[in-house]
Amino acid sequence: MQDHLDDLRFAHVIADTADAASMDRFKALGPVVDTRPDMALLREAETGVEKVIRGQLQRARPRDAALSEGEGLEGTGPRCWVVDAIDGLENFARGVPVWATQLSLLEASEDGYRPVLGIVSAPALGRRWWAATGHGAFTGRSLSSASRLRVSGVSKLPDASLAYSTLIGWEEQGRLNGFLALSRAVWRTRGYGDFWPYMMVAEGVVDLCADPAVSPGDMAANAVIVTEAGGAFTGLDGNPGPLSGNAAASNGLLHDEMLAYLNERY
Questions:
Q1: 15 — alpha (psi -120 to 50), left (phi > 0) or beta?
Q2: Domain check: are 23 and 78 in the same one?
Q3: 82 and 138 housed in the same domain
Q4: Sign of the dihedral defined by the CA atoms of residues 120, 122, 123, 129, in that order
Q5: Domain count of the chain?
Q6: What is the model's pLDDT at position 30?
Q7: Which residue, 231, 194, 4, is CA-closest to 102?
Q8: 203: domain CATH number?
Q9: Which segments of the chain have a pLDDT < 70?
């Protein structure tokens, strides 16, 4: 197994720079409370942060490929950095502090690309989470001040907490009734949304979460962090990893039961 600790240290350097750039834009935009946000303006802010990150990658890891929403794929090879400059852009627009920069490293394997490193940095919350394959998952403001993450031990659905981001997405896929049945089977549900439910699964404060439609950039870092914390991360099809176009994460003990509900068609 390759040691990715040097890459992880580099990812923290990038996250520090991205935090500074995104917080500057967050403070400058201010919340919009009288009309729907101008998403074109917000995309400009996101693109600015993305360019900062891509510039660092090009200088320090010129042999690696990089993939991001704004600039697409650049480069080829067995290693690819995936950038989500501002995950939770609508929250960012309204001054809600639940948004983050996500950075992950994917490496080619016999089964295709797999994420081996992930970092999620939420500067407006003052939180950061990270993991590298085989090294565990952690939270803290830096590598030197970190606490190890571990998923919960909840083993019964009536005792479980479920987090989600949308109801409309489940309805559009014909899965809403299954999702609602799952929500009735658990102890409590909360619509935290975006990256945060996955981080809470890794922390053990939430037991289940799922999204009906996601991109690899949304989920690659989350997948590494959840699995290194001892949890399970798959698509709704049960295939491990973040490349199924949707996502389900859990403490592992309840994963199959969750997928059974979410794949039930009514």
A1: alpha
A2: yes
A3: yes
A4: negative
A5: 2
A6: 64
A7: 194
A8: 3.40.190.80
A9: 1-2, 30-33, 36-38, 265-266
Which residues span the domain enclosing 47?
5-148
Task: Print the SS3 string covering the chain.
Answer: CCCCHHHHHHHHHHHHHHHHHHHHHHHHHCCCCCCCCCHHHHHHHHHHHHHHHHHHHHHHCCCCEEEECCCEEECCCCEEEEEEEEECHHHHHHCCCCCEEEEEEEEEECCEEEEEEEEEEECCCCEEEEEECCCEEEEEEECCEEEECCCCCCCCHHHCEEECCCCHHHHHCCCHHHHHHHHHHCCEEECCCCCHHHHHHHHCCCCEEEECCCCHHHHHHHHHHHHHCCCEEECCCCCECCCCCCEEEECCCCHHHHHHHHCCCC
Q: Which two tokens stand for residue 171?
A: 């309805």
The rounded distance, in Å, linking the Cα atoms of 52 and 263 is 40
Q: What is the pTM of this model?
A: 0.94
